[in-house]
Design a protein that fits this description.
The protein has 455 residues and is α+β, with helices and mostly antiparallel strands. It has 9 helices and 11 strands.
Length: 455
Amino acid sequence: MPRRGRKRKKTRTHVVDTDERIRGGLLSNDELKIPRSLVIRRGKVESELTELVTDIRKLMRPYTAVNFKEDAKNRKVTLSHYATSLSTSLGVTHILALSQNSNRVTLRVGRTPGGPTLSFRVKRFTLGRQIRAVQRRPYDSTKAFESPPVVVTNNFGDVSAAPHVKLMRITFQNMFPAINVSTVKLSECRRVVLFNFIRRDMSQVSSDKKKHVGDDDDLEDEEVEIRHYAIRAKPVGVDRKVRRLVEAKIPNLSKLSDISDYITGETSSGAPAPAVLRPGEMSDSEPEDEDTQVVLPGKYRGKGNNQAQKSALKLVELGPRLRLKLYKVERGMASGDVMYHAYENKTPEEIKALKQRKEGEAALKKRRREEQEANVARKQAAKDEKLAAKKARKKEREEKAMAALRGEVANDDGGDEESSSEEEEEEEEGTESESYEEESGDEDDSEAGMESDED
């Protein structure tokens, strides 16, 4: 009989340590070092601020919670709660919280779980949709957000900068993954995030305000501007018309008799060729400056951007735009000592007195909490004791009721036996009385018969 079915395939159940498995474990360890962010809004905010949260999440991609939904009951929860609950389970390393009151918009950037926390005032912001609305050829590519952006910090100074300035620079850099120049792929460098530190001479600014009233009245020293760009590359060294063909932008050649008419711009007779460009095809700015031209070390996105090809780089703004002012640095996660404040300066004695007052308030709060917990425990114990006594009384009543019920049943059984014996005795007495009455009746009848005979 021929063999039926496929050949049996052996299934291995033991684990084989291969180089790929070891490499995968090392890769997971490297991924654990990647910073991951969470952008949230706290309290009630306007719709524009909600859209700004979405734009910032887009800027922080791909290592951020893009579709995170804030629960309405958690919008007033402290940042330390978010840090302790999400830093361990989701691996979140930075929390960016936007809040709003009647006067200003505040952005807090905190390092989980123990801080520090940088508090910024959002002086101005522009949404991404507002930037795209004024662009002639906006950039639209979802693949550009699959890799982290290149971080550029400008004008933050060197090691001699102020401590809060160095802390800002380090915080901005650590929010994004570090780029290893020796191993990075050119095709992954698709976006740029710029942090520009602005220093101003306030005396000069005040004099300019008097001349130009109403222009930038809220300018301050040591502000930070944040911009978000996409990198676009175009091949150079060839004619623009040829480059359009290379980029697969085929023009309308129906009015031409030959492709050479499109390239040269003239027909075979020497007459100028008809226009073949569609409306909107001309770029608003072509990157023909030699400073922007580079030789690509590898293939880059776009037609004609091959290895060793000379291409011109152009930055297209994606949004959002932010202008921030650092006004406070706290040691903990939105709590702890104030390490820096832009508007309040305290002497060492005032700082010491404030620290002692805070420690006293914390000790008083701890003592009151312990007293409250002790009172709650005492009341709960009294409540449990009362409940146990109530249950004991109820059980005792039930037992007494059952005992009484058992006694009544026993009495009922004895009574039934006595009543049955009495009934039997009554029946016997009844039969005896009936027999006696019959006998007496017979005697009366015999006496009456004798009297009748005598008569």
